[in-house]
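Here is one chain, start to finish.
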Amino acid sequence: MSVGLLEKESTGGATARVGFEYQDAYVLQNLPKWLSQSAFSHVVSEAIGDVEVCYHGSGGRVVHLMLEAKNHELSSTAFWAEVARFKSVHEAAPQELVRFGLVCLGYNGKTSPFVSMLGRLRGVGMSYQPDSVILQRDRDEVMAWAAKQGVDEDFAGFALQHVDFETYSPESADAAFAGEVERHLRTIDLGGRQAARLRDRFKAHIARSSTAPVHRCQLELDICEVLEHDRGDWLSSPTRVRLVGSETSLDQLTVAADEFIGPARISKTTADWQQLSASAREVAVFLSNCTERRSVVLDGRQGMSAACLLGHAFRATNKFVLHVEHNGLLYRTDVYDQANGPFFQESTRDAPSTSAEGVASISFTTAVGADLTVRVGAALQDLPVLTLCSGRAISGQSEMNLAVNEAKAALVKFRSEKRLDVIHLFLKGPSAFSMLLGHRLNAVCKVQLYDWVDGAYRATAMLDG
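Its structure:
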């Protein structure tokens, strides 16, 4: 089976645009849920599938959830025919069309047991590890059931891995819309008239969705215009970016930073660090392009270099506001309370070198200096050095603000006085500090980061100026 936007099966609906009340109602009722998903980019009708929900994927590409919506109960033959088409579409474009969904009024007695079993595996089964022997036994049972029904093993296996099945009735879509907004977009409080206005705007977009995609930014603009002066809570609501690659989900923004924590960092090459930086920047660009909401939630428990790199990707000069979670505390860059200083003891060492490079060490409790002398080697020994050291602990927002502000000011002054193009930066302290400092590392210069791994400082990522 060929797959393309010009195929007859793809163009029929876009040409006629009649009889689509069922799928339009489904899209309307699900738009609030999709908007609550951080990676959601846009939705389009009558492309390859009846509906395609599109997300930001790794490498900056767009990945699609393809939905087929049928306003009737599916026979067993029609059910497996849809699965077969999903499989052929995935094989034709495996990096683009990655997930599939079949939505209909109901499933008959021949297919509903299969749908129910998958519902169990994807419901309560999510409480088990993916490699659980219990889950594997149940998957085998699903495949055995399909074989007894005469279902092709490839089709059953594909459905098990890639297809979601949903029963949907459209009668309550209009009435349910306000409740879906309240359920999924919790910072939005709509009155009855506001909910009706927003619903009508969304319906107008959906009616045009077979001629052009409906982008997240269009939908969020409608939200802001309907909320008018009450849009503040919505605009300040943060987007979570997950930093665990093993938990990658189609609908969630993810940067795989967990591979850069602990001893495994010793195997990371310059190219690996560049890829991490590129991945974080791609997410930042995606958010800048698709939403006016610039608050981002990050887990601050990272390696020192990775934390600084991530903070720099979502930097202040690009209007991002960070919410950094760290050991039960939350640090926000839009809270400006500051403790009394000074926080750091500062010292500098001049050098005879005329190089445009310098060394800066920032440490809490334990000074970095001795480690630098022993472990870095001769390459940096003749460069000017800035040392910031503190015995104070960071116990809250005001101390963190003081530490970050002092460190940023000292680095800018050091760069200016020594006329530096590159600062080799060594950090020893809370990783949340490193992340928040990275967020502020503008107007400095290029910064080469280092991590302490296996008894030595090793060069990691280079941040642009």
